[in-house]
From TrEMBL:
Keywords: Membrane, Transmembrane, Transmembrane helix. It comes from Dialister succinatiphilus YIT 11850. The keyword Metal-binding does not apply. The keyword Lipid biosynthesis does not apply. This is ECF transporter S component.
């Protein structure tokens, strides 16, 4: 009788133990910043944020799944922030359509880590330059998708409620991108490059 060998089946898990560890650490930082408010810098029309930094770090040291997960937590806390102390723009989005507000807060943030990981994965050049470009690109992705989602979903009704043109709303949003998005991107690069470099040297590998 022929003996049948049963090879052990490979377990396919969504996140490895190492990825879960990184997710837990960065989610803890995100939760702390989100709950305490230290991750949001209140401005006149919106809240500038540094909460995207853990998301980008997660994507670069542990892969896109971790980046998407931490980004989701970032977006969730951003949505909670609009319920507690909304900025001018998100207060209108929340009152106009809470589902639009949730989309604006969460979906762009999930995309941050995915975009940063994509840039790092496919960008030629030295390691530090690739990390820097991914950090800046991920931060700008946050700003552009967040404000772009607001403009596409509620830009017209917001303009009507204020008695201004849609073009004026678009110009204001472009101004916010310049005043907030560019400085946030620079800060992201300054912080993320040494942190990711240190983590990779200590043994963390991107999937």
């Amino acid at each position: 009788m022929e003996k049948v060998n049963h090879a052990p089946q490979e377990n396919h898990v969504f996140l490895s133990i190492r990825q879960l560890t990184v997710s837990g650490l960065l989610a803890g930082i995100t939760i702390f910043l989100g709950l305490t408010g230290y991750g949001f810098i209140p401005l006149i029309v919106m809240n500038a944020t540094i909460l995207h930094i853990p998301t980008i770090i997660g994507a670069l040291v542990a892969g896109p799944k971790v980046g998407a997960l931490v980004g989701f937590l970032f977006g969730l806390f951003s949505f909670i922030q609009t319920l507690r102390a909304p900025s001018l723009l998100l207060q209108f989005a929340l009152q106009y359509n809470p589902f639009y507000d949730a989309f604006i807060c969460i979906v762009p943030r999930v995309c941050i880590g995915l975009f940063a990981w994509f840039l790092y994965k496919h960008m030629p050049g030295r390691e530090g330059i690739r990390v820097g470009i991914a950090a800046v690109g991920g931060s700008l992705c946050n700003t552009v998708l967040f404000l772009g989602s607001f403009f596409l979903l509620v830009g017209a009704p917001y303009a009507a409620s204020k008695g201004i043109s849609v073009e004026a709303v678009g110009a204001t949003i472009m101004g916010i991108v310049g005043m907030n998005g560019v400085p946030e991107a620079i800060v992201s690069g300054v912080i993320i490059v040494p942190v990711v470099t240190m983590l990779k040297k200590s043994g963390w590998k991107m999937k």
